Amino acid sequence: MSDGGLDDGPVELVLRSTRVITPEGTRAASVAVTAGKITAVLAHDAEVPAGARLEDFGDDVLLPGLVDTHVHVNDPGRTEWEGFWTATRAAAAGGITTLVDMPLNSLPPTTRADHLRTKRDVARAKAHIDVGFWGGALPDNVKDLRPLHDAGVFGFKAFLSPSGVDEFPELDQGQLARSLAEIAGFGGLLIAHAEDPHHLAAAPQKSGRKYTDFLASRPRDAENTAIANLIAQAGRVDARVHVLHLSSSDALPLIAAAKREGVRVTAETCPHYLTLTAEEVPDGASEFKCCPPIREAANQDLLWQALADGTIDCVVTDHSPSTADLKTDDFATAWGGISGLQLSLSAVWTEARRRGHGLEDVVRWMSSRPARLVGLDDRKGAIEAGRDADFAVLAPDETFTVDPAALQHRNRITAYAGRTLRGVVRSTWLRGECVVREGEFAEPGGRLLSRQG
Ligand SMILES: [Zn+2]
User: Fold this and answer.
1) Which CATH number fits the domain that encloses residue 143?
2) Ligand 1 centroid to 102 CA: how many Å?
3) Gap from CA of 374 to ligand 1 centroid (Å)
4) Is the pLDDT of residue 229 over 60?
5) How remote is the CA of residue 160 from the centroid of ligand 1, in Å?
6) Helices marked H in 313-449 — which ranges?
7) Start and end of every Amidohydrolase-related domain (predicted)?
8) pLDDT by residue (tens digit) across 369-391?
9) Higher per-residue confidence, 160 vs 326
10) Is residue 437 part of a domain?
């Protein structure tokens, strides 16, 4: 870590705002940057060193770039769904400076070390922000997990129910036990899509345009049971596990109790569970379809409480697009996935503010905690000396109406179309370079990140 002293070389850039969100709170400050790193957080009126450039954002908020650890980029193989060029532009436009790509929906999936190399080769020249990778745990790739870990993936995703794509089968309880034992053996992290296949199979499966039928087909019990099993298995071998895209508030007491008992479990939820409700999904509107599903307003209230009390650790997008033809009006067969990358900060901030939370809370949920989840918290997730100079500049009180035409992701389908959101991202900065400002993008300058240690 740098101490911000003279050893860092001359200050090249000073970012100034009356509202800088630091780990100690929000204050007027000037942030000094040298060689892509924050070297000091100084007084607002600190003298700008000779040779340094000043960017004064006035009263717009300077916050650490967001870290989104749940993104399906789908590149290579399903690039018509999404790709590194479009996904990283959408992310940057939304104030995200680091994303971690999920191991599935690309071809190949990231389930072997040579597949990871293929993915990295594809991503390298297209990344407008920093990009890391999750590996995948399949029924037959236990021997590949350690090589993937050594090659730098941040952990391993497992499905406990069918994933939606044939090349990424789910683990049964025995296979989960084997993968967990292997991963715990080298100190890795398993992240799980937690829905129990038996509960899903037992639920009424009606096709058609009615959202209530779809909701009934993915009951809370499926999530609750899968999470209970995951926690039990993690506790048995002292493995570190993370619950992806938590939707069922019924599972919150389980997670809270496990944390109290010392099980190494964390949990995330997503902007759509926090800002959209089952009651308002129009029939046939499969842009709202994801698994587990968006649930009722009363469920949403409890998710917010759990964020406030720390039972849920972080908020990440689960951006998972497809082409428009797969988003049919039949909820049973339409592709499940919500495209929220570019809108996540504004969507969460709009609702957080309405519920009395501050931007510091949003930064904790969407930047600091996800950075910690993947062990990047020495470099990302806070404005303090020694970290990467990654920032978003936000006009927090300004509103806009979501126009799909203004979105950067490949297929401009969004559940947020027509909504009025609060918080406009003015510019996004990666290691001291402006990635996007007022819709103008720089050439891609993102780096490929690997797990450290
Ligand atoms: Zn996902």
Assistant:
1) 3.20.20.140
2) 7
3) 16
4) yes
5) 13
6) 344-354, 359-363, 369-373
7) 61-434
8) 999 999 999 999 999 999 999 99
9) 160
10) no
